[in-house]
Each structure stands twice: as structure tokens, then as C-alpha cells.
Amino acid sequence: MDAECLALINRLSWIFLTLLGAATIFIAYSTLRMGSVINIGSAVYPIILAGIIFLVSLHCVIFGDDEAPRALNIRGFAGVVASVVVFIAAVEHIGMVPTVVLSMLVAYAGQSKGGYTFFLVYAVLFGLATWLLFTVALGLPVPAFEMP
Fold first, then answer.
1. Cβ distance 15 to 61 under 8 Å?
2. Please, what is the average pLDDT of the chain?
3. What integer pLDDT is reported at residue 12 of this predicted model?
4. What are phi and psi of 35, to 5 degrees?
């Protein structure tokens, strides 16, 4: 494919994501419960995620360039997908903190840079902060460490 065709496909992809985000916001707002600040309803998180998708894709539609998209970084993409799978598979078995650390390390392995020592410290602190957010701020009974 030539560069103009790829640029058109890129632009149409951003338009599709913009429309998809707007439709998701509309559907979530009209069919799900919003709730209150204390008791968040099921519509809040889909609206937040769809809103982010909508705003980012709208920005790319308006201000994006017409260059052909770069090739997909397979290693980075696989690292992120694998980290989500690791999180889903491990969170109930080993607890929140080790699961977050493990997921972050798997995602970080998808890049080509080193520096795992600093990142491991960051991941542990992030895992502890995530656990504190769920247990203290949100009051959810999420175990920090789960022994099998």
C-alpha cells in the first residue's frame, strides 16, 4: 500500500474510535446506573474509559498528521497484553501487591531498555499504593498477599 492509502486508513481509524467512544458514553449513560459519590454505579467506569478514548481520538482527528502510521512494536504490544493476562490469572491467587509488581515487570519487559533495579522498586511502591487505594480509600477487602 502506498503512503496516502495508509494515511487515509489511519484517519478513518481515529474517526471510528471517536464515534465508538461517543456511542459508548451514550449507551452507558442511558442504560446503566450512575449512583452517587459514596455508592458509585456501574456507568461511571465505562463512561470514564469511553471518555478518554473519545477525547484522545478526537484530538488525533483534529490535530493528527496525515503521515502513514509507524509499524507496530510487537514486543511492546505483547508485553502489555501479557501483563493484563498475568494480572487476571494471578490476582486471586497471590494477592494484589505481588500481582501488580509481576504485571508491571511483564509489561516493562516488553521494552528494549534495561534498568530493572529502579523499576522493581517503583513497581513495589506502586503495588503497595494500589493496595492502599483499594483497602483504605475505597474500603474494599482486597488481600495484599495471598498464600496458596
1. yes
2. 86
3. 86
4. 75, -160
Residue 2 to residues 21, 69, 70, 105, Cα–Cα distance (Å): 29, 12, 13, 38
The closest alpha carbon to 95, from 32, 146, 58, 26, belongs to 146
Q: Which residues are CB-neighbours of 80 under 8 A, at least 6 positions away?
A: 107, 110
4 exposure class (CB count in 10 Å sphere: 0-12, 13-18, 19+): exposed
Where residue 112 falls among pLDDT bands split at 50, 70, 90? low
Q: 62: which residues sit within 8 A by CB, 6+ positions away?
A: none
The widest CA-to-CA distance across the chain, in whole angstroms, is: 56
Separation CA 70–CA 40 (nearest Å): 39
> How are the residues of the chain apportioned to helix, strand and coil, as percentages rounded to the nearest 5?
70, 0, 25
